[in-house]
Every structure is written in structure tokens, then in C-alpha cells.
Amino acid sequence: MRHFSYFLRHALLAAGALFMATPFIVMLSTALKSQANIFSGSFSIIPEQWAASGNFGEVFTSLPIIQFMLNGALVTATIFCIQVLVAVPCAYALAKFDFKGRNILFNCVLWSLLIPPQAVAIPVFLELHSLGLLNSYSALILPWTISVLGIFLMRQFFMAIPDDIMDAARMDGMGEISILIRIMLPMAVPALTAFGILSFIAHWNDFFWPLICLQDVQYFTPPLGIAYFKTDDAGIKYGPLMAAACVITIPLLVVFLAARDKFIQGVSVQAGVK
Amino acid sequence: MASITMNTIRKSYGPVDVLKNISLEIKDGEFISLLGSSGCGKSTLLRIISGLEQQTSGTLHIGGKDMTNVPPKQRSVSMVFQSYALYPHLTVFENMAVPLIMRTMSRTQRFPVLGKYIGSARSIRKEIRAKVLALAESLDIHHLLDRNPSQLSGGQRQRVALGRAMVRDPEVFLMDEPLSNLDTKMRAHMRTELAEIHQKLGSTFVYVTHDQEEAMTMSDRVALMMNGQLMQVATPREIYRKPVHKSVAEFIGAPKINILSGAIVERGVMEVCGVRTAVPGELQANASLGIRPSRLQPAPESSGTWQAQVITVEDMGSSFLLHCELSDGTRTISRIDSRSVVPERGANIHLAPQADCAMFFDANGWNHACHPHLDSDTLHAFSTTPPADSNADHAQGTKEYALASAV
């Protein structure tokens, strides 16, 4: 009986994992197939006609994919840096200072979490238009510099740091800024890493906002860039499209694997304090 | 070195008064304990001395200088926290070096990488290193310097926290229940160690604790706090023998003092559970008698003894605790020597108080011997505890307190 429930649990988990992984498997498989193979009547995971070099070759020859990836890196890195600069002091104040209206302010932060970015897309678009910033890196970066999620995550983390540590720092001769930089920030590295990964994935993968605010190909981020394969006059070239999708997934994998331990530490908020 | 003078310090959070008019003079080099149960305001008072908390009113002087509005980093005061509050991301060495780095190096010299090229930053760092190493050696933590606090045991963390407090030679040490997270054996060990450190440094120590044993064994004076007020500030000896109030008598001493309520049957005579005793004439109705467990002993029946039934007997090793019930239902505790004959549970015995050690409290709980409204002659006459040692105490014990069945 125990063996059966053990088997059942794992079968369920495996089915779930397979369901989640299927799109990726199909993506990888399609990237390796020739156009004819993709459109043949039968479907197989293992390609019957291999065209890996052709598909991947086309990604790098017919598209400025490197430019797209550099754009993506620049935009996500800048967004994350500014988000940290804003979120950490905000979160510190919300977590550790006792001032009038703190709870109201924090509630505002929580309510902002509920607003979907699509809902405010048009007003933000108009605002950027009136500032003359559309179709630029600024248009990609500015709307995301204040991360409500970041403030919330960091606030929760700072709440878990005992007040005694800050008092000890004050006794040791630190001012509030020193406490923030020398004590709170280093202690918050796991939380920052977790937030960094979330932020990086969200903005690297973002398709909606770049599509709205950009016209020039030179600013395109990876997802927007590879969508170009679709509008080619020869119709949709699924092979190269999926190959490009594979290529732009690689940085995500690398970043996640590199920061995996810290990410898991950071998601469980208490970690790192004691 | 520095004395601390607090003058009418008050602290309130909204309508709640946490500290009510605290005035206390702490002498230079003194070891004073702020003793009290949780919530009595002792930690708040400590935080006011440290500067982490600002008093609502009143003044504070440290070493003769007005520190009322001075931030903590400008006070020559360091603090050891109950949770040790070590920086978890720094090694032991770095933890101990922080106070020196923050106080001896300029902002630019502290800047990462580039800072060491500015001014004499390198030589300062070298001095800091030497100082931390020497201190670590004396605290016996030199082999731990490269570890993180999470890799240390409770006792080791305690030493590191002490080291961090000692490294910049402050004039005043503040300690907020520093031993309460240690196991019993380690606590006893650190207690003697702290006392030695105090003697060696000669600095002023202010030690907050709820543990009367710690307060009594280490301190020069104990300041007992209740409900945001100082009840009594005295040497451990005096606070034990001459508590000003019933609540002080009940707080100090383990097991707890026996408080027996009595009735004043005529002026100067109180009847406690059927036994009459001479008391100071000023005592009015609702007075009570306090007697320490070690001074309430089994005795042959006489006119001055209480009849009692033994409820339980606790073997403490060096002594026995006898829980008894008097004929009127009052519970008492006696501590008797382990070599004496120990009564069985349920036995009917007689208990005799050692008369010269009894304390009398008036209806408001004040100790009559210490009551301010008594003139000095009366005080002297009724003094139960002359300041000399305990033998003299017995010899001099004033006969006015002798218990008698008929006066």
C-alpha cells in the first residue's frame, strides 16, 4: 500500500513536470527540424530531417540577435539597479522606522501590487510621448524603475532582521546610511538575489511593453526581435523562430543556475538572519 | 571613567508611563544591577542611558557631561545585547573591529578598495588589527577570529559580543540580560568572568537582569524596579535584609519570603495565626509579618510556635524545603539543613520564627523598620538588620520583636 501511494505521488508529480516541460521540449525539437519535417503530417520529438545548423545559422545571419541580447542585458540590468536603489531605502523605512502614516503608505504599496501593468500602459505611453521619450532605452526602463514587488519583498526581509542588530550598529558608531549600506544590504543579499532573478526574468521576457513603445529595430529586446521571423514574406519560419527562442532562453538558464542557492534562501525570507 | 547621574527621568509611550521619575546616581566604577520582572522598565532605562531611546523628560549626565540629547555614537558607552546582536555577515574579527573602524577612520578611509590609500588608513587598520588580536587573546577567542557568528556556540558568541563592547575602552558598559540565553553551567561561569572583567577594567557597569541571583552575586548595588519606579537601591546585603516594601521582600530571596497577615489586637500587639507578638506601636490594622524560609524552623511546641502540617518536602541536596500549612490555612516554606531531622509528609509539627529576623509591613506594605515617617530613634530601636555581619545581627537582635503568646 505504501509503495502504491509512493508510486502514485511520483507519477502525479512526473505528469505535472512533463506538462510544464512539453512546450520547451517541442521548442527544442522544432528548432532542430527542417521546415518540411515541421509541416509533415506526423509529429515526432526526434527530428526525421535534421536542420539544426541551418536553423541556428539563420538566427545569427538574418537577425541582429546579438544586438537584441545586448539590448536585453542593458535594459534588465539598468532596471534592476534602479529598482534596488529605490526599493531598499523605501523598504528599510517601511520596515524599521516608526513614522506617522507608515501603515497607510504600506497599504498603498500593497494595493499597487494589484494593478496590472496593462491597465496603465496607455497612460504611461501618453506620458512618455509627451516627454518625447518613446522609442528609446528610456522608454523601456523608466516605467519599471519603481518595483512595488521589490519594496514589498525587501520590507518583509528587513522586518525579519532583529532590531538589536541595528541598535548594536548605532552603538558602534554608525549612522542610518551606514547601517543600510554596511549591515542591512549585505545581510539582504539572498533576498536581493531572489528579487533580481524575478525582475530579470520578467523584463527579459517582456513582450507587451517593448511592442508598444518601440519602433526602431535597434532598441528591440530579444522576444520582440525574434518575433520578426513571423512577419517574413515567406510566411512563418518555425525552425529558425524556435532556434532563436532557444538562444534567448540560455541567459535565463545561466543566471538562474548561478544564483540558485541564494534564490532559494531568499524566497524563504527568514534565511540568512540567524 | 565615568559616573552616571539620572535626574527625574520620565518616559511615556502615549498615555502609558513606562518610567516614572527615576533619579539615580551611579558611582564611577560601580557595578549596578537594574533588577525587576519583565515590563518594569529596566531595559527602557538602560536604553535611555545608551542613547538609543530618548526620555520624555529629565536629564542624564555621564562623567559630569550633559548627555540628555547626545546620540549614542557620541557617548562613551557600549552595550551587550541579550541576543548578542552580532553581525551575521561578518567574521568574528570583523565584528570586533567595527566599533574601532567606525570611530577612528574617516568616511573616505572606510571606502572600499580606494580607502586604504587615503591618509594613514593602513597604519590605522594595522593598529586596529593588533588591538582586536590582543583582546581576542585575553578573551580566549583568538582561534575563532575567522569564523562567522553562526558557527559559534552560545558561550562563544557571548564572548565575541563582550569583545566588541570592550574593544574601544568605553567608560560605561551596559548589559541587557547578557546571560539569559546561556545554559545554567555556562551562566555561572560567565558570571564570575564578568565580575573579573569588571574588576580588571574598573569601568562602570550597568547590568539589567530579571534574575535576582545574578544581581545579588555580581553587583555592588542592586536597583530594584517595579512598574517604572525604583523601589529600592541598596547593596545586595541590605536589600535582602532590609527591604523597604513587602513587594521587595517577596521579589528578593529564593524561595520566597513567608508573608503572614496579622491583626493588631491592641496597640503594639499583633496576633498572627493564634500567636501574639510585640510589634512597633505605630502599626495599624492589616499589618503583616515577613519571615525568610531559613528563619522559620521546626521547633518543640511552645507558646511562640505555630502548629503546622507538612504538605511536601523537597530535597535540594544541601537543604530541604518544607512546605507547610498553618492552622488558618496559610502556606509557608521553611529551608532546613540537610543534617537535621526531616519531618515526614503529613506530619504535624511546630514552626518557630527566629524572632530577630522578622520584618513587619504596614497596611500599605511598607517595612516598618525603614518607614520614612518613623523618627531615627524608633528606626534604631526596631532595626532588624544592623549593617554588620550576620552573627552580630543575631546577638544584637532587639528583644522588642520577641514573640510571646501573651503580652
How much is the average pLDDT of chain B?
Answer: 85
Number of domains of chain A: 2
Sum up the overall morphology of chain B in one term: elongated
Largest sheet of chain A: none
Shape of chain A: globular
* Unreliable residue runs of chain B: 372-407
Give the assembly state of these chains: heterodimer
Taking all Cα atoms into account, the compactness measure Rg of chain A is: 23 Å
Q: Order of helices and strands of chain A, N to C?
A: HHHHHHHHHHHHHHH
Write down the Rg of chain B. 26 Å
CATH homology superfamily name of the largest domain in chain A: MetI-like
Strand content of chain A: under 5%
Approximate helicity band of chain B: 25-40%
What secondary-structure arrangement, pairings included, does this model have?
The complex is a heterodimer of chains A (274) and B (407).
Chain A: H1 2-31, H2 35-39, H3 52-62, H4 65-96, H5 102-113, H6 121-131, H7 137-141, H8 148-160, H9 163-171, H10 176-187, H11 189-205, H12 208-213, H13 222-226, H14 238-258, H15 260-267
Helix pairs in contact in A: 1-14, 3-14, 4-8, 4-11, 5-8, 11-15
Chain B: E1 4-13, E2 16-26, E3 31-35, H1 42-50, E4 57-62, E5 65-66, E6 77-80, H2 92-104, H3 121-139, H4 154-166, E7 172-176, H5 184-201, E8 204-209, H6 212-218, E9 221-226, E10 229-234, H7 236-241, H8 246-251, E11 258-261, E12 263-266, E13 269-272, E14 275-278, E15 288-291, E16 296-298, E17 306-315, E18 319-326, E19 331-337, E20 348-353, E21 359-361, H9 376-381, H10 390-396
Parallel strand pairs in B: 3-8, 3-9, 6-7, 7-8
Antiparallel strand pairs in B: 1-2, 1-4, 4-5, 9-10, 11-15, 12-13, 13-14, 15-21, 16-20, 17-18, 17-20, 18-19
